[in-house]
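tool_call: predict_structure(chain=1)
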Amino acid sequence: MYDALYARQSIEKKDSISVESQLEYCRYETHGEACIEYTDKGFSGKDTNRPGFETMMTDIRAGKIKRVIVYKLDRISRSILDFANMMEIFQKYHVEFVSSTEKFDTSTPIGRAMLNICIVFAQLERETIQKRVTDAYYARCKRGFYMGGRIPYGYRLTNTVIDNVRTSMYEEVPEESGQLKLIYSMYADTDNSLGDIVRYLNEHQIKNLRGANWNTARISEMLRNPAYVQADIDVYQFFQSQGANIYNPASDFTGYNACYLYKGTVSTSRKQSDLSDKEIVLAPHKGFIPSKTWLACRIRCLNNRQSTKTCKPKNSWLVGKVKCGKCGYALTIRKAKTKWGRYFVCSQSGSRGSNCTGAGCTIYADVLEKYMLDAIKERLSEFSALKESLLSCLSDTGEEQTNMTKKIRLTQIEEEIEELLSKVSGASSVLMKYIDEKVSELDAERKALLEEVVTANVTDTEGRPKQITNHVKAWETFSFEDRQAVVDTLIKVIRIADGNIEITWNI
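tool_result:
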């Protein structure tokens, strides 16, 4: 039987002890007796999936080893569970354990107790280092530093300096960005599906300049990427409505910079289209897809619809807009042989691996459609008093900039009101009076600004708002596609939970 010398080094650094130096310390403990050396270079101690370690354990089970010697405890394990399992095997095969620098005697109760205490601190150190690395990563992300990874199609890397730190940023490649602009403009037209775009590119011999083949999955990924968008306040409000964590203030979304999307520090198993708890940071590079075009494509991807014509009248013109208020997934239509015929259910309720129990109430499609039609009529009536001058398009660049400034201020007002209302609980009478006055003042400003910018969200031509109103008035005579077009124009999302309906409007 032999002594086993085990050494591990995760990465080579100036302040870390090498595998050779560890073995030298371990050899001293053998006093010249025969030994077998096992090493793992480039492996973490967070688990036991290491070839050298596994070979040593195999030899222990074969009865070849009488003692295991390591330079330091954390060289063999940094996990309490792994260490406990390892020590159980050592005891079973009567193998002693020696740490050359810590001098543990596993033959005594106090020695085993001290060993367990040390492994607790070894695991704490590993988890602390892991969190420090993660925090440093996201701190750099929020400052707009390039964090590696695949360079998006349409860009190349160029050197830059941010906060006196050398890093890289994206720079537009005109040949590639031209193809992306075509793809975005085609998908913004609801008559085109992803398959239509792929066929068009192939038929017109528009080749991917990086040698890859065009396919629907690749194009869908491009359409969801905020690295291309000219991020303005509409983009800010979109990510805000989707529950994303936005690092930059609304005033920074001027329509120049693009965005970085990060997974965030919260682990989630949600589907890729869900933006809850994702991190949004303004990137240092300039976007080249207008926000209106990017949002039109992104919302289509979010709703998982290739075309509004793919939904049949037997379903509902609300499909794609209605979400479960508990899990965030879409509510889909189910049919039943009852007088109601159709009803909405959570697509995740009852599915394998989901904890969602549903929206908490029965949602009859006919009842919800009537409710939403009334809500749309009421919403439109709020703007019926607008003067004709407010219904014209904002085509002049100066007017567009003025309108954007007003929309940024609207978002800031809503955030200020929300912050004030969060302080109501436990507030004194004096503070309550101040909060009430301030909220009233902000609400009056909000209403005035809303009247000035409302048409920018619904007006494509001079008669568009009137057209929408006429559609609603003659609702029963219009096609299923026309009804969906109205809903797409007016509503971002409808969330339902426990009988409560929350509507997020585009206007």
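agent: The chain has three domains: 2-140, 155-303, 308-505. Proceeding to next step.
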